[in-house]
Amino acid sequence: MLGFGVTGFTQKSINNQRVLKSIPYEKNIVQSSSKEEIILTYLDPGYIPLLGFGEDVPIRATVLAYFPEEIISPHVGDTIQAISVGVDDSYEGDLYSLKVCIWKDTTNACAHPVYEQEVDLSSFSIFNDGIILDQPYVLEEEGVFIGYKVVGKGYILFAENGTSSLNENGYGDMFMEPDGQLKHAGDYGYGDFYIKAIIGRKDPVDIMLKEIIPNSFAVLGDNEVFGVVQNKGANPITSYDVTYTIDGGDLSSVYHVTDVNIAPRNSAIFTHDIPAYFTTIGNHTIEVEISNVNGGGETDLDNNKIRADIQVMNEVFPQNVVYEEVTGTWCGWCPRGIVGLNTMEHEITDGSWIGVAIHKNDPMEMMSHEYFDELGLSSFPDGKMNRKQNISPAPNSLPLAYRQHKNVMPPAKIEVTSQTWNSETRDFTVDVGVNFILDMTSVDYGLSLIVVEDSIRGSGGDYAQRNNYSNNIDLIDWDGTNWKNLPNPVPASQMVYNHVARQLIGGFDGVSGIIPESVNYGTAYSYTFSGNIPESHNELHTHFVALIIDNTDGHIVNATKVKLGNYDGMVEHEKENRLNVYPNPSTGVITIEDVEDTDITVYDMLGKVVYTKHCATQKTEMDLSYLQSGNYIVRVIDKDKFSTQKMIFIE
């Protein structure tokens, strides 16, 4: 990792903002060049640890380093097109806001940058090619300071040498190996921060084909061919052509991309107008090429083509992503998990996002500790995505991680095929079916079911949510609620808890033996989960999350989420809205009221349909005297709701 910072730095606190400022000329700047760009950077510091004031301590810092005139002057008239910075929140920290900046004057606590740009944290990663500037900055004769402003908490700043921490007296202290002594970084030549400036190349026209899809898997028949291109040149790209071949065969028709304006270093997506058509299952190749950029004149064609080996399947299953978070009402930083899960559920409505909150040491804690213990998370809040990757539940961390996991092609899918719900005993069953994308051997899969409840309210202090963001840091939910403006704690009367895990059925690793060691495409593997919803839980706000778990490494292969009773789009009415059916018991003739424009179905206790009727009036009479004596279920479907009533028929 290339990085630069300051061999020594001075630090002062102004209005609670720590300004980490370089001492000019104490380290040489290195210039590296490629066909694509010129990079100005300090020497590579090697291993770069994370810096902060403490795991849960807020940090608001301005970090910058000086590029002197003798370094800048050869590039007068060129533009800084991107700035790469070392900031990360994937370990022990959270990133709330980030701005990249350029200064000429650092007086007044660096209050007046000549360029400042807010960074979209949903797509930001430390492993980036640089934050592309919305307006490339034109270099002049004088030297400049380049850096960033950051707000967060914990260890989020990359700095050179050893395990680093800042203390509250305004100095940068660093724990240095091998002597193990704390020393002032500025005094001992430590504390370089990762920053680099990327100056755009001068070649006028250059396009790069960065990615194509399909790139690993495809299905029989039509497959859209799309890809990502990036402008590596100095001029905007306004047109280009796309072609492809399959298995080295005939060239496809030319897809002319026009009416675009791709700025330098920016990227764009294309979709060819003719799909790739595969006729046989098995291994194939596809090669996509970009040509005729801006009508011609491109000289570097080495990055215009991608060839990919494709495995063609019978079909492709969508990947649903499960995020399991540990939280608690006592945890002052846990509101970011509330906001993160709420925002993701609001923005992703196709069912491919499934959030689960596992509460600990509060009234919503599960009776069994297996779920929490097996998940293996010790800090709060924290979470795992598909049980593969630890991800902070912060709203800026979840979207990028979700997209990465969403793009994984799963070998299997799981669906809820049917349910039963007995409103008197509160017992339920959930039938699931699992299908595989191809024949497989030596598999080890388990099936598990999570019972999740939304809209939970409670009374008393244990349901009040601690809020360290109060009067401190902005934390804004999708509906505009800013936790900075809420009290600490937030009273129970104002709190509604969603995504709460209530039960884990089948165990953390899932029920084994249902999926055999060898599976076949086209064969459905089924299982029935059963359980009971306690009276204290609300069945109207209950969901089931069914999981396929790969026990070779413990990750979630795929999942689905449905509402109780919602496998066909319905949920049962509350008890006070039960059907008005009489007489009960009955000799066979019954009357049902308040059923205008509804569908009525009668089931025996084995689930077999014995009678159906559409009712157009408010009141209807049904003669079921032909039925044998026994218990039956009457269900009335009204748009997106249903009501049930158990009936007893006697001869």
Radius of gyration over C-alpha positions, nearest whole angstrom: 30 Å
Mass-distribution shape: globular
| Sequence stretches where pLDDT stays below 50 over 5 or more residues | 1-29, 41-47, 161-191, 567-577
Give average pLDDT, whole number.
80
Main sheet overview: 7 strands, mixed
Number of strands: 44
Question: Domains counted in the coordinates: how many?
Answer: 4
Strand content range? 35-45%
Structural class: mainly beta
Description:
- With 651 residues, the protein is mainly beta.
- The protein folds into four domains: 9-200, no CATH class; 207-313, Immunoglobulin-like, CATH 2.60.40; 317-409 and 457-495, Glutaredoxin; 573-649, Immunoglobulin-like (Sandwich), CATH 2.60.40.3080.
- It has six helices and 44 strands.
Secondary structure elements and their pairing?
Blueprint: E1 9-14, E2 17-22, E3 29-33, E4 37-42, E5 50-51, E6 58-67, H1 69-72, E7 79-85, E8 87-103, H2 107-110, E9 115-118, E10 131-138, E11 144-158, E12 163-166, E13 172-176, E14 181-184, H3 185-188, E15 195-200, E16 207-213, E17 217-219, E18 221-223, E19 226-231, E20 240-246, E21 255-257, E22 267-271, E23 276-278, E24 282-291, E25 305-313, E26 321-327, H4 335-347, E27 353-359, H5 370-375, E28 382-385, E29 389-390, H6 398-406, E30 412-422, E31 427-436, E32 445-453, E33 500-505, E34 525-532, E35 542-550, E36 555-563, E37 571-572, E38 580-582, E39 589-593, E40 598-604, E41 609-615, E42 619-623, E43 630-638, E44 641-649
Parallel strand pairs: 2-6, 17-25, 26-27, 37-44
Antiparallel strand pairs: 1-2, 3-4, 4-15, 5-11, 6-11, 7-10, 7-15, 8-9, 8-11, 12-13, 13-14, 16-19, 18-23, 19-22, 20-21, 20-24, 24-25, 26-28, 28-29, 30-31, 31-34, 32-33, 32-35, 35-36, 38-39, 39-42, 40-41, 40-43, 43-44
